[in-house]
Design a protein that fits this description.
- The structure holds two protein chains of two kinds.
- By secondary structure, chain A is mostly helical.
- Helices cover about 45% and strands about 0% of the residues of chain A.
- Chain A has helices at about 5-20, 45-55, 60-75.
- The longest helix of chain A is centred in the N-terminal third of the chain and has 16 residues, at about 5-20.
- The radius of gyration of chain A is 14 Å and the shape is elongated.
- The two termini of chain A are about 25 Å apart.
- In chain A, about 35% of the residues are buried.
- Chain B is α/β, with parallel strands linked by helices.
- Chain B has three domains: about 15-75, no CATH class; about 85-245; about 260-459, Vaccinia Virus protein VP39 (Rossmann fold, 3-Layer(aba) Sandwich), CATH 3.40.50.
- Chain B has 17 helices and 15 strands.
- In chain B, β9 (about 285-295), α12 (about 300-305) and β10 (about 310-315) form a beta-alpha-beta unit.
- In chain B, α3 runs antiparallel to α9.
- The longest helix of chain B has 20 residues, at about 90-105.
- Chain B is globular, with a radius of gyration of 24 Å.
- Chain B starts with 12 loop residues before the first strand and ends with a strand.
- Classes of the chains: A mainly alpha, B alpha/beta.
- At the A-B interface, α1 and α2 of A face α4, α7, α8 and α9 of B.
Chain lengths: ~100, ~450
């Protein structure tokens, strides 16, 4: 289950993607299933999972809600204490 | 106990290297439990009956190595072929098999762990899914993990040939991971291709998403892994891909696919050749494996198929192989004939991890008999192979061979030589006989035309 502390970096990531115009990528943030026993040993690229999410027609309204929720959390600077640095620069992260 | 060199990717299953050519997979504890459940509900039997899946059964007469819980055995197919040796229609049918199997499984709560084209082999001219250990329980709302692999292994190479008119075999030989949709196919397709089935979603959108998400933070990638995709959406995707793949048609021209109709033989010559090949089979008593090198329409492969359990019908021309594949489909010869895109000038090498994952063509079983009909002049006059070198190859490859010597003044030889300057000294019938008897025994010889001689050669 996602908790308050672990979603701030995801929100930050989402904003980074928003800035680069990749809103669609945030679709995944709501699609949180429980961790599953993994059988598949091939690495499904993140892109191929996003595509399946889009193909699956995940409700846009949920996307928007979740995104907004995370962005708001992000603005309040909530972050995971053991979060790793984001892959891209985030020097303009609001505090 | 050692493992087969091609089997290491799946942490839950490996193929043992067992003596006597047996195919035995060992399973982890959880895979063994899943396998037992599948067997109990009869699903595996159904799939085997419908010719989708290779038969398999638990076996007890092997020593199961430490750390593994169970062993299952499947019959060994007489010849292993790889996707880079398949024609368009073969890769297409293997793709459709994978999709059909995935659909059938998903409806029953099972999924394939991977969608590698190497999980499919050809039993004669029919594709068969052989990696029984790839079947695993479907996890509720799991995305299709092998979707990307399916596209790289099947969809992209097929699209390359259907939408760009470029043969896929060299690309697949170049990479065992298939043809990357994102890195290799997407750059070749333009805005003008967006109307083609599958391009917008499975190529362009996928490439865009892949590129945009490559640098996602690790924490986010973990979340992606847990993404929920409803089962109905996965099924829809499988069905959509099935529609797209089944509509693809090869667009590449083939020189040799029209050869049989356009060649210089008359009916009597063809009849004499057929009779000679049939008599050779009779004399040798048939066997397990035969090669027909330069098979073209497969006329003589069909003769071999009456006597040999498996006939590998090779041709360097993928168009000719495709025509052969489609023509044997549904005939009794389809049981034995494996059409194969293979060029004797450049046979498939050993490939993959430590050069042992995929065996070289010549390491996949020695044929009891090999046919080299209407081929020698192409190799020796067209490609410069010395005649003695060709005979070395023939004698090294199989204990018996049927070779058609085509003289330099034959019309087909003249066609090859028309644009060439170089002379080919030592290429004549007398030299052929001398070189052949130095290496083996000429058991039978006949002239099928003034410029063409057939030989049955044993070593």
């Amino acid at each position: 289950m996602p908790t308050v502390v672990d979603i701030a970096p995801a929100g930050r990531e989402a904003r980074r993607m928003l800035r680069s115009g990749t809103l669609f990528a945030v679709v995944v943030l709501l699609a949180l299933g429980a961790p599953r026993p993994a059988w598949a040993y091939v690495d499904p690229s993140a892109g191929s999972i996003f595509l399946q999410l889009l193909l699956g027609g995940v409700a846009g309204i949920l996307v928007a809600l979740k995104l907004t929720y995370r962005r708001i959390l992000g603005w309040f600077g909530r972050r995971d204490p053991d979060a790793e640095p984001s892959a891209g620069g985030d020097s303009d992260r609001p505090r | 106990m050692t493992f087969a060199p091609s089997s290491f990717r799946d942490p839950d299953a490996r193929v043992l290297a067992v003596d006597g050519g047996r195919v035995v997979r060992v399973l982890s504890a959880r895979a063994a439990a899943a396998d037992a459940a599948l067997r109990a509900n009869g699903l595996l039997d159904e799939l085997v009956r419908d010719r989708l899946l290779v038969p398999s059964a638990p076996t007890r007469d092997v020593t199961i190595p430490d750390g593994w819980a169970a062993a299952i055995e499947s019959p060994r197919l007489p010849f292993v072929s790889y996707p880079y040796e398949w024609s368009f229609g073969m890769l297409q049918d293997a793709a459709l098999l994978t999709l059909r199997l995935s659909e059938r499984l998903l409806e029953r709560g099972v999924m394939l762990k991977d969608a590698s084209a190497y999980n499919v082999l050809f039993d004669g001219a029919a594709p068969l899914f052989v990696d029984v250990a790839s079947l695993a329980p479907y996890e509720e709302n799991a995305p299709w993990a092998a979707y990307g692999q399916f596209c790289d292994h099947f969809l992209a190479p097929l699209m390359l040939e259907a939408y760009r008119g470029v043969r896929f075999q060299p690309a697949l030989r170049g990479s065992l991971e298939g043809l990357s949709v994102t890195d290799q196919l997407a750059p070749l397709l333009t805005v003008a291709d967006l109307w083609r089935p599958g391009v917008l979603v499975h190529v362009k959108a996928r490439a865009l998403l892949d590129r945009r998400t490559r640098r996602l933070a690790t924490s986010l990638r973990r979340e992606v892994r847990r993404a929920a995709v409803p089962k109905a959406a996965v099924l829809r995707n499988l069905q959509g891909l099935h529609r797209i793949v089944s509509r693809l048609r090869s667009r590449t021209p083939s020189v040799w696919a029209e050869y049989d109709d356009a060649n210089t033989y008359d009916a009597a010559t063809l009849e004499r050749k057929t009779t000679f090949v049939a008599a050779a089979c009779e004399r040798l008593g048939g066997g397990r494996l035969a090669w027909d090198v330069g098979a073209n329409t497969g006329r003589y492969s069909r003769v071999l198929a009456e006597r040999y359990r498996c006939v590998v019908a090779m041709d360097a021309d993928a168009g000719a192989v495709d025509r052969l594949y489609r023509s044997v489909h549904g005939t009794p010869a389809a049981r034995a004939i494996v059409p194969l895109v293979a060029d004797l000038m450049d046979p498939s090498p050993a490939r993959g991890w430590r050069g042992r994952e995929r065996a070289a063509l010549t390491e996949r079983g020695q044929p009891d008999l090999a046919l080299y009909l209407a081929l020698v002049h192409h190799l020796c006059l067209g490609r410069g192979v010395p005649l003695d070198d060709f005979l070395d190859l023939a004698c090294a490859s199989s204990p018996a061979s049927v070779i058609e010597f085509v003289a330099a003044d034959d019309p087909m030889s003249q066609a090859i030589l028309a644009t060439k300057e170089a002379a080919h000294p030592g290429y004549d019938l007398a030299a052929f006989r001398t070189l052949a008897t130095r290496r083996g025994r000429i058991v039978a010889e006949t002239a099928v035309s003034p410029t063409r001689h057939l030989f049955l050669l044993t070593r």
